[in-house]
Amino acid sequence: RYQKNFYSDDMVVLAISQSGETADTIAALKEVQKKGIMTLGVVNVPGSSIANMTDAGVYTHAGSEIGVASTKAFTAQMSALFMISLLIGDHKNLSVIDKRQYIEAFGKLRNQIQEVLDNEDAIKHLAAELKDYDHTFFLGRYYQVPIAYEASLKFKEITYIHSEAYPAGELKHGPLALIDPQHPSVLFAPEDGMFDKTISVYQEVSARGGKVYTVSNVEGSDIVIPKTHPILYPFLTVIVSQLLAYHTAKLLGREIDKPRNLAKSVTVE
């Protein structure tokens, strides 16, 4: 809303909102529409303000989201954006071979997510350890950076334990000073092209006395996830992160669906 100089005639703006009533997103949309720019909505609630305002878009069909700390809507939004990306790729020289690989891998995600759910005991075990700390880091590289932010957000929202997320490659730019035996880290480290560099972060934190818990497709990790296409690992790691927050909060006796101080829909700026 407050950035005045990035508009162009060939721009499309996507408005992403679970509720379709997010006040700051609506305000930004109004500013964009004054410029005559096309707007698309990725929204969960039919008939919501953003769904009605945008020129076109898709519903994510995640179903009713009861908890304040929205979870399934996040995964549904990723799915919608992934499919939109494939459609754009059709017009931007995405090769048939690459597209086929993406689609085949995407089609396997449902069963692979079930594998993550079936591995819930390992997540519960990790939750039992994290509940006794006052601070937690969530770290990732590449596609896992936004997942680290989502993990930290959900963790602080419903456990009330202070957590921060950082790109793993930026850990030395300050946050490494906080590492000690009382400041554990959860590292998202699937084999996605950045694995070797991600593991170097594991070694750096461990060398400074920090406890590191890993989420990876590599056997021996604290939480093992199935192997998939590198670009699709976020669909699996995010499920781990959300379940980890849930089980930690449950062990602490928190009100998970209605965390303190938070509202379901952000209707004010």
Summarize the structure.
By secondary structure, this protein is an alpha/beta fold. It contains nine helices and eight strands.
Question: What can you see in these coordinates?
Answer:
The chain has 269 residues and is α/β, with parallel strands linked by helices. It is built from nine helices and eight strands. The chain has helices at 23-34, 49-53, 72-90, 96-107, 109-118, 120-130, 145-159, 195-207, 233-251, and strands spanning 12-17, 38-43, 56-59, 135-140, 162-167, 185-188, 212-216, 223-224. It has a five-stranded parallel β-sheet, sandwiched between helices. It has a three-stranded parallel β-sheet with strand order 1-2-3, with helices on both faces. α2 links the parallel β2 and β3 (56-59). α5 (109-118) packs parallel to α9, α6 packs across α9 (233-251) and α7 (145-159) packs parallel to α9.
Count of extended strands: 8
**Number of helical regions:** 9
N-to-C terminal Cα separation, in Å?
11 Å
* Largest sheet: spatial strand order: 5-4-6-7-8
Structural class: alpha/beta
Largest sheet: 5 strands, parallel
The backbone outline, from C-alpha atoms, is globular
- Report mean pLDDT, rounded to a whole number: 93
The helix content is 40-55%
Can you write the helix and strand succession as a string? EHEHEHHHHEHEEHEEH
Low-pLDDT sequence parts: none
**CA-atom Rg in angstroms:** 20 Å
What fraction of residues sit in β-strands?
5-15%
